[in-house]
Specification:
- By secondary structure, the protein is of the alpha+beta class.
- 34% of the residues lie in helices and 23% in strands.
- It has 11 helices and 11 strands.
- The chain is flat, with a radius of gyration of 21 Å.
- It starts with a strand and ends with a helix.
């Protein structure tokens, strides 16, 4: 008898409060790196009714206009109307910025070591062409489509920026079989009927995405749209937003493991970010090389030390070679010092705001260097 299970992942739109915070933090980082590629940034953002508060540690000789950066992000996302309770023109922008701790700087600058201790995970699988788990891949596509429809202004002109999506996939014998349930929560103006919203979301968002990715063959999936019947108050007026509070949305949707460190607002000397990007790069290349169908990879660092303290490859029984041999191959083929990762993946560029919504992984844009399958031949050659 076939074994069946359900797995669910969620995504959020760029207008979700936590994602506004992530985008502001990464926009500040980009502004610093554009002028000073070696600038040190750890920038956190809080947004709530009428306020954006930016705090953290920045060490650079470059000047960046943080209030203007924050307002531009808020405008771009779509908070342009004071009736939303949060908009780019009237919100207060408060900053509290210090320099990086000199104790951390000793290890990062003098020893070219990791900017913190911790463990990072990478993951890849054959469920999608971009080697991501299917539930988070579809959830991101739905969230993107919801924002795209809003911005185009042709359909669903009543939409507001906040929104969430969720996808449940039914697996049979470990392989995706069908879409089981879709949940879409779309913020809207007060003067629209819930029946119209549900019909429009099905037609202009869900159906469009599922058809595009050929996941509409079984139309018996369950669809929930704004299950409470109303989603007028949203964004920072309804819920405060914080940088780094959507780390599962940012990664693999709950598949595999997570080391706990957020990405946005951190320059690449922070291995929470660069180490996680490197781990995804390695895992994806292992799967792309045909060495496994699933690959989870862990890297761990000690603050101030260049070399990782541990590396582990786990192919979950799908590998064509022993996991120990794969781990040794990773050690030989990839330079996993912070400098090595930063150089290989070209991370000292202002590329980060685009990562701050719709996932850091599974993206095929040129700047997502950690998504390139450019080490496939090297891995194969090393393993003979």
């Amino acid at each position: 008898m076939a074994s069946r299970r359900l797995f669910t992942s969620e995504s959020v739109t760029e207008g979700h409060p936590d994602k506004i915070a992530d985008q502001i933090s990464d926009s500040v980082l980009d502004a610093v790196l554009a002028k000073d590629p070696h600038g040190k940034v750890a920038c956190e953002t809080l947004v709530t009714t009428g306020v954006a508060f930016i705090a953290g540690e920045i060490t650079t000789d470059a000047y960046v206009d943080i209030p203007n950066i924050a307002r531009q992000v808020i405008k771009d996302v779509g908070y342009t109307d004071a009736s939303y309770g949060f908009d780019y023109q009237t919100c207060a922008v408060i900053t509290s910025i210090d320099e990086q701790s000199p104790d951390i700087r000793l290890g990062v600058v003098n020893k070219h070591g990791a900017g913190d201790q911790g463990m990072m995970f990478g993951y890849a699988c054959t469920e999608t062409p971009v080697l991501m788990p299917l539930p988070i891949f579809l959830a991101h596509q739905l969230a993107r489509k919801l924002a795209e429809v809003r911005k185009q202004g042709k359909h669903m002109t009543y939409l507001r920026p906040d929104g969430k999506t969720q996808v449940t996939i039914e697996y049979e014998d470990g392989k995706p079989k069908r879409v089981h349930t879709v949940v879409v929560s779309a913020q809207h103006n007060a003067d629209v009927a819930i029946e119209d919203i549900r019909q429009d979301v099905r037609k202009h968002v869900v159906k469009q995405v599922l058809e595009k990715f050929e996941m509409d063959r079984d139309e018996n999936y369950i669809l929930f749209v704004n299950p409470t019947g109303r989603f007028v108050e949203g964004g920072p007026k309804a819920d405060s937003g914080l940088t780094g509070r959507k780390i599962i949305v940012d990664t693999y949707g709950g598949v595999g493991s997570h080391g706990g460190g957020a990405f946005s607002g951190k320059d690449p000397s922070k291995v929470d970010r660069s180490g996680s990007y490197a781990a995804r790069h390695i895992a994806k290349n292992i799967v792309a090389a045909g060495l496994s169908k699933v690959c989870a990879l862990q890297i761990a660092y000690a603050i101030g030390e260049p070399e990782p303290v541990s590396i582990m490859v786990d192919t979950m029984g799908t590998g064509t070679t022993d996991d120990v041999k794969l781990t040794e191959a990773v050690r030989k083929v990839f330079d996993l010092t912070p400098d090595g990762i930063i150089g290989r993946l070209k991370l000292r560029r202002p590329i980060y705001r685009q990562t701050a919504a719709y996932g850091h992984f599974g993206r095929e844009e040129d700047d997502f260097t950690w998504e390139k399958c450019d080490y496939v031949d090297k891995l194969r050659q090393h393993l003979g």
